[in-house]
Every structure is written in structure tokens, then in C-alpha cells.
Amino acid sequence: MYPPEFLYSKDHEWIQVDESIGTIGITDYAQKELGDVVFVELPKPGDHLTASESFGNVESVKTVSEIFSPVTGKVTAVNNKLQNNPELLNTDPHGDAWLVRVRLADRSEIDNLMTADEYEAYIQKEKAH
């Protein structure tokens, strides 16, 4: 269910790293917990993200949830499709609904993230509590 080429955070974000650029999104688990997404607030290109700090919000019919960056870096691109189609987060969270692309400041930060198998085990453990 979770793409094996991605890495995952305990905050339910994913990142796919290609050289020094990371594409960040929220996981399928996160979108299911949120319910129907109605609005997404994202940073602007050029903004600086810090690992484990909030960089935006996802608003659903149930709640507003912060999005946390899995890495530190500078935003190089923002998925503008989400402005008019926030529901993409519900239908394609691991594909078309990526949030931002970031130039990594410190590639070693990805060593702190989970593989797909580790993430699945983590959410099973979370559900059990």
C-alpha cells in the first residue's frame, strides 16, 4: 500500500528523494484519518522548511491538521493543483497530490525516516493504542 521508494515520518508525511530534491506529501493513512479534504495551505517557493516543524495545513470537513516537514530545505516547487482540487489528497495521496518539492539542506536527515515496511508497522502499533 505504501510505495517502497518513499521514506516516511511519524507525523504521516512521505518524501521521495531524487539527488538533492525531495518531494513531500501526506500518507494514505493521514488522508483517511482526516476525511474529506476541503483546503490546503502550503508555503511559497523560496520558503525555508525545518525538519519536524510545521509548514502548512490540511483542512478537512472534520478538522484542521498541520503538515510537518520530514527534512530541512528550501521549497523549489509547490503543487498548485491542490488550490483548486484539494480532494486530490483523498484520491491520490502518493501521486498527483504531492505537496512541495524541497532542495535538501542536509541529506543525512533522511536516515531518521522509516521505510514503507517500518511505517506500516508503526501505524499498526498506533492503531493498537
Would you write up a description of this structure?
With 129 residues, the protein is of the alpha+beta class. The chain has a single domain, classed as RNA polymerase II/Efflux pump adaptor protein, barrel-sandwich hybrid domain (OB fold (Dihydrolipoamide Acetyltransferase, E2P), Beta Barrel), CATH 2.40.50. Helix content is 22%, strand content 34%. The chain has four helices and nine strands. It has helices at 28-34, 81-84, 88-91, 116-128; strands spanning 7-8, 13-18, 21-26, 37-41, 48-49, 54-60, 64-68, 73-78, 100-104. The strands form two sheets. A six-stranded antiparallel β-sheet has the order 1-2-3-9-8-5. Strands 4-6-7 form a three-stranded antiparallel β-sheet. The longest helix has 13 residues, at 116-128. The chain starts with 6 loop residues before the first strand and ends with a helix.
